[in-house]
Structure formats: structure tokens, C-alpha cells
Amino acid sequence: MAAARRATLFFAGILGLAGVISAAMASHASGDPRLMGGASAMCLAHAPALVALYAGWPALRTAAIAAALLVAGTLLFAGDLAMRHALGHGLFPMSAPTGGVLMMAGWLAVAAGALLKPKDD
């Protein structure tokens, strides 16, 4: 589990970086800024959530599954938007909605963790 916890912090950093880059692209690149703006928003919203999951990992029983769902969902959703911006087509059919559902499931896992007995009790 230590590797999964470190991976969560790694992806927090990667998503934070991607969020700043995509925000700059939305502001300065040609074309419609909405796609990159949306990708930026998702990355910058979920990066600090992953940092919080990393910090709460020792007590939150659902931290691993919540982190995995949030990472996968954000990568799919933001990746699809970025590809649509850059190449004119998405990753694969239904990739953004699939990513959105995974992010929602990740947040539900966070909420469920609040209802479970903490690990250290």
C-alpha cells in the first residue's frame, strides 16, 4: 500500500502540472479555449484532493480506491478534452463521460470513507 500512497502524491503533482499547462493553453493557444479550460479545471480540482487523500491515507479506509478512481477519471476526462482541442477528436468514444463517472465514483468513495470506522481506531 505504500507504493499506492506514493503514486497518489505523484499523480497529484502531475495533475497539478497538467492543470497549469492546460490553463496556459486555454489562455494563449489558438482555437476555442473551452476544452482546455475544462481540462484545466478538472486537473486543478482533483490534484489537491489527491494530496488530501495522501495525507488522510493512514486513517481513511477508502483512500486507495478513491485515489485510483479520481486519477483514472481525471486522466480520461481531461485527456479526452485535450485531445479534442489538439487533434479534433477524443481518446475513444465515451471516454469523457466514462471519466466523469469514475470521478463521481471516486468522490462517492471519499464520502463512504467518512462513514467507515477509521483505520487507526
TrEMBL record:
Xref: InterPro entries: DUF423
Pfam families attached to this UniProt entry: DUF423
This protein's record includes keyword Membrane: yes
Superkingdom of origin: Bacteria
Keywords: Membrane, Transmembrane, Transmembrane helix
Residue stretches spanning the membrane: 36-57, 64-83, 95-116
Protein name, entry field: Uncharacterized membrane protein YgdD (TMEM256/DUF423 family)
Organism: Rhizobium subbaraonis
